[in-house]
Structure formats: C-alpha cells, structure tokens
Amino acid sequence: MGGWIKRPFKNEKPVPSATSARASAVFALFLLSSQPRDQPCAGASVIGRESSRRNHLMKRSCLALALGLSMLSSTPVPVRAATLDPVVVTATRSARPKSQLAASVTVITADQIAATGATRLDEVLRNAVGLQTTSSGPAGAIATPSIRGSEGAQVLVLLDGIRLNSPQNGQFNLSNLPVALSEIERIEVLRGPASALYGTNALAGVIQIFTRTPDTEPQTTLSWSEGRFETRDLSFSTTRRKDNMRYRLGAGLDRSQGYRTNSDLDQTNLEGMLGFDLGGGYDLSLSGFYLDKENGVPGSTAWPSPQARQQDKNTLAALTLTGPAGPLAITLRQSYERRRNDYRDPGGWTPVDDTHIVETFGTELSAAWQRGAHNILFGGDFYDDKLDSTASGNHDENRWSLFGQDQIEITSRLSLLLGLRYDAHSEFNNELSPRAAALFSLTESTRLRASVSRAFRAPTLNDRYWPATSFARGNPDLDPETAWEYELALDQQLGDRGELTLAAFRRDAKDLIDWRADSSFVWSPVNVNEARIWGAEMELDLQLCELLKSGANYTYLYPKDRATDRFLDNKARHQVHLFLEVGPVKEARLRLDGRYLKYYADATRDGTGYVVLDASFSRPFVLDNGITFDARITLKNLLDKDYEENSGYPMPPRELFAGITTYF
Fold this sequence. Notes:
By secondary structure, this protein is mostly beta strands. The protein has helices at 21-32, 53-72, 110-116, 121-125, 195-198, 461-465; strands at residues 87-88, 96-97, 104-109, 131-135, 143-147, 155-159, 162-163, 184-191, 205-211, 219-227, 231-242, 245-256, 265-279, 282-296, 309-325, 328-345, 352-371, 374-389, 393-409, 414-425, 431-441, 446-457, 481-494, 498-517, 523-545, 548-561, 566-567, 572-585, 588-599, 609-622, 628-636, 644-646, 649-650, 655-663. 8% of the residues lie in helices and 55% in strands.
C-alpha cells in the first residue's frame, strides 16, 4: 500500500562525479576526522563568510566521501541523526536502546520508508542487511522474507505484537499487509533465532511492524500515487489523542492492471485503533485490521495460468491491557484472526475451485520485573488454529507455551541474556528453546556481542493435511524443523557520524521439511534435509555532513544441504545494498538506491547476478491556508533490468510513479 509521509526538508546540492571512489573515500575520511558533524557541505549557507582553503577542502571531501562510500556500500535506509540510539522492543520483548542489546537488529523508521519512495512492503525490507525478499513479480503477488538464508515460514512477522504468519502455510505474504505504508511508525528486523521468546516460525528471525501512535495534535492525511500499468494507490488516515482517549482510523485502495497477462490487482484495507488511559498506570486498547484483495495469478513463464484468480479476505482484531500488579508490569492480549482464501483456475490441467478458511484464537500473558541488576520477563501463551478447507477438510490444532528471560547487568561493561521457552503442541513433540547472549563494551564506542540459541518451526497445516491425490498428499507424522545458531559480532561507533557493524554466524538445521516424490511419483513432505549455513554481514551507516547521507550493507551466505552437498535453492551468495541521499536543499531531496545480488548455481539458478537501481525525488509545499503537501517522483528499476527474485517470475520493468500527500 502506497503513501507518502511529511518530513522537514531544507536544502539540496547535486553531487559531482568522481573517478576514484576508493581514493576519494580515504582522503575524505582523513579530512573529516576534525570536522563537526553539522558542518555544511558544498552549497550550504556560508555566504558572506570567508571561504578558506580548509573549508573548501572539507566541502569537497564530504562530497567525495559520499560518492566513494556509496559506490562501495549501502544501508537499507538513510540514517537519522547519527547519535540517535533507537529503542528496540522485538529483541527482548521490552523497550531497550539498541546499544544495550546483544542481538543483531535493524530499525527502519517512517522517515526512511518515505525517503525510498517504496510502495510495497517487500521494497522496504529488501534493502535490510541479512534479509532477502522473494517476490513473484506484480503488485499483489506473493512475496516472502528470508533472513540469513532461511525459508519464508522460518521468519516470524508481527504487527503491533500480533502474529501474522498463517498456520496453513507457515509464512506471511508481504503483499497482504492490512495497513498502508504511511501508517507505519517503524519496522524492527531481528536477525537470528528467537524461538526462546516467540516459539514457532522464529527459527531465523523476526520482523515486527509498529503502526503510528496518535499524537495530541489531530492530523488527517490523504495520499495519492499513480504509476505505470494503471497502478493507483489511495490512502486516508486520521489520528487524535484527547484527555485519556486516543484513536486512529485508516483506509486504502490499491489498483493495478499489472505487466503480465492476468496480473491485475484490486485491494482494499481498513484499520483502526481505540485506546484509553484508565488511570493508575493501566491502559486498554482495541485494534482491528481488514483486508479484501483480489488478484490474477499469472503463474510462471514456463507454466502460465492465464485464468487463475485468487481472493483473500482477512480480519484481525486484538484487545490489549497493560498495567501494574505489585512489582510486576503486566501485558495481557486477546487476539482473533480469520483468513479466507478462494482460489479458482478453470483452465488448469485439473480445474481447481477451492476455499480455505483459517481461524486463530490467541491469548498472551507476560510480566516484567526489575530487581537490582536483573530485568526479568516471564509469561505464556495459548493458540488454537482451525482449518475449514474444501480441499484439506476440517482440522483443529492447539499449542501453549511458557517462557522466561533474564537480562543481567554483571558490570558496567558486561551484560548477559539468558532465555528459555517450552512449547507444547497437540499433534507433535514438544520443543525446548534456550538462548544465551553476552554484550561486552571494549570501549565507549566499541562493543562485542556473542550469542547461541536454538529454534524450531512447526509443520504447517498444509504439510500435515494436504489432500491425498494421485499427485500429492500430506504427512501427519512430521517433526518440527530445528536449528542451532552461533553468532559473533562487533559494533563500532564512528564518533557522532554513524556506526559500523560486522557479524559472522553459523546455523545448523536438521529435520528440514522437503516435498519429495516416492517410487509412485506421489509428492509428500518428509523430514530429510540437514543444512549448514555460514554467513557474514557488514552494515555501515554514515551521516556525512548536513546535506549528505550514505551507507552500505553486505551479506555473504554459504548455504549447503548436507545430505546432497548442494547449495540451497534461490539463496544469494553475495548481496549488496547502496544508497546516497542529497539534501534537503531548498526543501527538496534526492535519493539513489542500488542493490546487487549474485546467486549460487543450483536447481533454479545459473549462478548469474543482477544490479537494480531506484531513484526518488521529493519536495514539500506549504499553501497560504497552512495546508501542507508533499510531492514525490519515484523511478523504479532505473536501468530497466530484466531480473527475477523467484525463478520463473519476472520482476517489473522500469516504472515511473508520481504522488502527492496532503496533511491538515
């Protein structure tokens, strides 16, 4: 869902080209070592003041550094003030500054989402270090995340703490987000197993999306964007906080004809939140989300499906109560989700007309307690999943868990995190998920992290109850997938300009579920695969000077199936993201994003790679009556590159989008 966000902009200056990025970067770093962070770049307001040779060199070096680093590296999104230490919730289920976490976390803010010009959630996430998205192409097509070489069902996706992964297939389709991008306050990406806190699906990591919190000043937002292939996004939202009440209401429409035969999209979403401060530290909130989506399913280029249609109707509601209970801080949440999927393909080899309805009832209770050097969290949850399918029949499964965690401040420089979770399931073996991590501050600006954790992913309803046909059948005797992961990382603060993070990890997974054909050529899921994934990550965030931001991230993966000694399918060996942002200058800013992916040669890839560039230009305007609006132009796939994230499903060609967002 598209949507542009109001941001304060000031000035802009174009960046000259450089013939030697490496030399420019090194030279500029030497000069910048004594320059204040807010020193203006070339073109900043120094009119009427002396222009010494030193200031001249500083301006040129800042520009050269931005270009040099952007040619070598990138980050998922532009950094805000380099001294900002964002508060993170997902890593520990409690609010803590990122610098105090023994975990690898990326925080993507609303400002950063707006700067990229993204109109889809997968476009926002695919630039994060260690995260690869796999989209089947057009707007509305299935898109799933992968963290450190995982499958989509091994990544848990949360919306304001509510689980979005489907019990039917285990994953969350990023195209089915029931809220506009303009309503997102921030996204936290936790890399590494988190079953010790979240249980199933968090085998590789967690992505949590936080919606906007209403402010004391009421604000109404209207957004419109138009693009190629008759793509149109409209969204509306209004928020208000008054006395002890707050609310947020929003709606959105997405329409597109798509660039392939039978790839059109018609999507509507509604969302709202109503909250009350009950006094005495207690707070009660009710939130609801609704998605109604119909889209064509074009199939792969090798096996097209020109008549296949799909409709999703998803409803999500949650009631959350927080408050004190003696020395404890209690959180109680009741949630309900209903997913309905209708899939029809009258033109296939075997005509299909299926309806699947999945309902999930959930209860979560947790308590936080601080005592001396210990920050203790404990709790439990219960979920009941019901499947009503014309293909798979009716099934009911439930699961419950107990978990505990202790964050211990050993000294002012050393902290430990110990966690343990027990999950019980009605249909398969119980699971125990431990986690241990340490954070040591070598200096005020250098931190060393180490962790070891175990995680699991439960078999899905599809895995267990796929209808028996002459081609395929489910397997009710499956065991959960399990994995151990080990990580060592270094965080280096670069003065007040940014941060450099280096990490290395190894994941050993077993009992991986794979669909294989038996001697009768009937496909069925079995626990056969074992995999070992080695990897390394580098992330660099830099606020070069007042007018320039640049950064880089790089991910290396060595993912091997230990049973076959083959590389895991569709995993990028090298993944690089780069960006350069110029501005604000005269209220406008310009951003260029680039990404490079090179895959292993496997069953689906020939080992080649690709480079994709995106550009976005934005400027705010204020009318005489005080109404503010932002205008934006975004050019996606600037080089018109032919590429595929999911083999056999071409990604969009060059697309031009124009949009306006009004605030009043």
